[in-house]
Design goal:
about 10% strand; four-stranded parallel beta sheet; alpha/beta; about 425 residues; de novo design (two linked rop proteins); Rossmann fold
Length: about 425
């Protein structure tokens, strides 16, 4: 499998790809017209039949998620698009919204129609002001053309879309913390149950999906569920955007069927930067256990990556060559999680704080063998005991790095300093 499947990314190279005219020229909004000739339940079934699984990290079947909405409720239904992309290494939704915002808007209209919602929200990370402006422009264009608002395309269906800017909190990528933020409260995870499908935004039944999940809906409706299911693997169907970053010759977004391997992606990306070799990498961002060279041929689908000991996550492939200190990389990630922990629960709040302190001591060469056991003990006290997945995600790089690179940790405190400091100084032609 060495071919790409440019579907969401096919018009990114066009100068006007972000405009309504550019999107319509490439067949945009045709799927919406087809959707209005279908019953809402037909669309839900089509998404189920396609095998589309959430592209935000968890991989939960999208159509099944829609089906959890109660048949009746005294409160309105809502669709919320999680565009608060904040995971270290994850960089697919931001360029998607920047280059092709109308595919997301079309997906929002079709999805909202399918779940019988008349109000949808797109919650965007506040720092990406350029993306927010582009989304506002695209929404205005959609209203102007009659794709949003009252009686869309004469269908009798009404939908309003609100673009909401977050305030830069990683925790608001967690769906219930996102809902609290939307409602004007401090973004912190809610206790579940009740789940958002039953009592979500403003107490109403709510579907929360990732940008790429919703953006995939128009192609499923337009081409049929069998077309989507023909790509990928038996249980991980369809295509996805794989984000390659780090020590790779041509970093960027590679849209390919699920099940492709890192070796195949690296072949298309020109390989590891010249003169170096792969040391370790993340299959789904920093919240997933790290892989090494021996995992180059693991199919990048939910089942195969899970069986190999990690998670597919957001397909954020961070590539590190042999010049990288594993301890330093894990320290940087742990500093991020300690900073972004909302503090609501003790295991995450205290555990990530001690991760940061202990890894800083280990990276400087002042740690001990006992510190490694303490780190693993802290991990046991976080994993499965935190209020949300932030805590679990923070344990992934720590536990996996000690498992795969314990000798490198030991070298730090045996040598009394980071063994990569001198190498880094030589590599860059100067001091650290």
């Amino acid at each position: 499998m060495t071919t790409l499947t440019p579907i969401l990314t096919k018009n990114w190279d066009q100068a006007d790809s972000f405009t309504r005219a550019g999107y319509e020229r490439d067949g945009g909004y045709k799927a919406l017209r087809k959707a209005f000739r279908m019953e809402p339940d037909e669309i839900v079934q089509a998404v189920k039949d396609s095998g589309l699984r959430g592209r935000g990290g968890a991989g939960f079947p999208t159509g099944m998620k829609w089906g959890f909405l109660p048949p009746t409720s005294p409160n309105p239904r809502y669709l919320v698009v999680n565009a608060d992309e904040s995971e270290p290494g994850t960089c697919k939704d931001i360029p998607l919204m920047m280059a092709n915002p109308h595919v997301l808007i079309e997906g929002v209209v079709i999805s909202s129609y399918a779940i019988r919602s008349n109000v949808a929200f797109i919650y965007v990370r506040g720092e990406v002001l350029h993306v927010i402006r582009r989304l506002h422009q695209a929404v205005a264009e959609a209203y102007e053309a009659g794709y949003l608002g009252k009686d869309i395309l004469g269908s009798g269906y009404d939908l309003d879309v609100v673009v909401h800017s977050g305030a830069g909190a990683y925790i608001c990528g967690e769906e219930t913390a996102l809902l609290d933020s939307l409602e004007g409260f401090r973004g912190q995870p809610r206790l579940k149950p009740p789940f958002p499908a039953v009592a979500g935004l403003y107490g109403g039944p709510t579907v929360i999906n990732n940008v790429e999940s919703i953006a995939s809906v128009p192609s499923i409706v337009g081409n049929g569920p069998d077309w989507f299911a023909s790509m990928g693997t038996e249980k991980s169907q369809g295509f996805g955007i794989f984000s390659l970053s780090g020590h790779v010759t041509r970093p960027g977004q590679y849209e390919a069927p699920l099940g492709i391997t890192l070796r195949e992606l690296l072949d298309m990306a020109g390989g590891i930067r010249e003169g170096h070799r792969l040391k370790f990498w993340t299959p789904g961002g920093s919240s997933t256990p790290i892989f090494t060279e021996e995992h180059l041929d693991v199919p990048l689908d939910f089942e195969s990556v899970g069986a190999a000991g990690s998670m597919l996550g957001t397909r954020a492939l961070q590539i590190f060559d042999e010049t990288t200190c594993v301890v330093r990389a894990v320290l940087r990630w742990s500093e991020f999680y300690a900073h972004e922990s909302c503090g609501k629960c003790t295991p995450c709040r205290e555990g990530t704080y001690w991760y940061k302190l202990m890894l800083k001591r280990l990276e400087s060469g002042q740690g001990t063998e006992e510190d490694l056991e303490t780190l693993l003990d802290i991990s046991d006290n976080i994993l499965g005991r935190a209020f949300c997945a932030l805590g679990d995600g923070a344990t992934s790089p720590v536990v996996s790095s000690i498992k795969l690179f314990r000798d490198e940790y030991v070298r730090h405190f045996e040598q009394g300093s980071c063994p990569f400091d001198a190498a880094e100084s030589t590599l860059w032609g100067g001091a650290k």
